[in-house]
Design brief:
Layout (H helix, E strand, L loop, with lengths): L1 H6 L4 H19 L6 H24 L1 H7 L12 H19 L4 H21 L3 H20 L8 H22 L1 H4 L6 H30 L6 H22 L3 H21 L3
């Protein structure tokens, strides 16, 4: 039962998406779909570091999560906080040991993000307007991590930038939804600017993300028709996400943001063909 509770500390879908991000970044860097042992190690390392980051965040946020009644293992008394901490550190350790088998740049990224995730959870978790960028960087850098296996960053920088901004927008929408629960424990952008003013911020961030995606196609020449069509669909979903957010339908806005990001990732891989 304790082992099951420990596994609940990580969100498998998020970790799988991190691994897929590595695959996409690598594929774009080499310009084709390729599977190598090194890529498999990188994907597993990303999965473990992502899971470790989630587990250590639950460790530091256990009291806040209890306030939100999220039903997580720690405040549900199914595991101790100490067990959660050890579990996260073991995942970090294994993930970084695996990264030793990768190029030096890849190892540096793995170590850097492990440190950032720990510091974020321990020191910066309460400052959500900074945390938004750290969480979003975690998503964007899976693409860079994949490209680091080849050393070819080219178009990846622009696509990672688009992914970064789209995820920042989603994080801000989430903060608007959590505004009441976060009061007294965390400081978020909606608290500082108010839900009304932050709508303009989210709109601008979404537009910037969309612009970077189209820049990669029209200026750099990445991707063909499939990429352009899928990117357009993702862009429309991001705009719809903002419209739901603007109408205070935060939950639906978050859901659409995730769908838009998923389609954007599919567009990225479609651009390889």
């Amino acid at each position: 039962m304790k082992a099951i509770a420990l596994c609940e500390l990580i969100r498998p879908l998020n970790c799988v998406m991190a691994a897929i991000g590595v695959f996409i970044g690598y594929s774009i860097a080499i310009g084709s779909i390729g599977v190598t042992m090194q890529l498999g190690i990188a994907m597993l390392a990303a999965f473990l570091v992502c899971g470790a980051g989630q587990a250590i965040n639950d460790f530091f946020d256990s009291e806040i999560d209890a306030k939100k009644n999220l039903g997580k293992p720690i405040h549900g008394k199914r595991i101790s906080k100490k067990s959660a901490l050890y579990y996260s550190l073991i995942l970090f350790l294994i993930g970084n040991i695996l990264a030793i088998a990768l190029p030096l740049e890849s190892l540096a990224i793995a170590v850097f993000f492990s440190i950032v995730l720990i510091l974020y959870s321990a020191k910066m978790g309460k400052v959500k307007y900074i945390g938004n960028w750290i969480v979003a960087l975690g998503t964007a850098f899976t693409l860079v991590f994949g490209a680091s296996l080849t050393g070819n960053y080219g178009v990846i920088v622009w696509l990672a930038g688009a992914a970064l901004l789209a995820n920042v927008a989603r994080e801000i929408i989430k903060d608007a939804h959590d505004l009441e629960a976060d009061k007294g424990s965390k400081v978020s952008l909606p608290m500082i600017l108010g839900r009304g003013s932050v709508k303009l911020v989210v709109f601008c961030v979404y537009i910037a993300a969309i612009a970077l995606g189209f820049y990669a196609h029209y200026i750099i020449g990445f991707g063909g028709t499939a990429y352009l069509v899928l990117l357009t669909i993702a862009s429309l979903i991001f705009i719809l996400s903002w419209l739901k957010f603007a109408k205070t339908n935060y939950r639906h806005g978050q859901k659409l943001a995730k769908i838009g990001m998923l389609i954007a990732l599919i567009a990225f891989i479609a651009g390889v063909f």
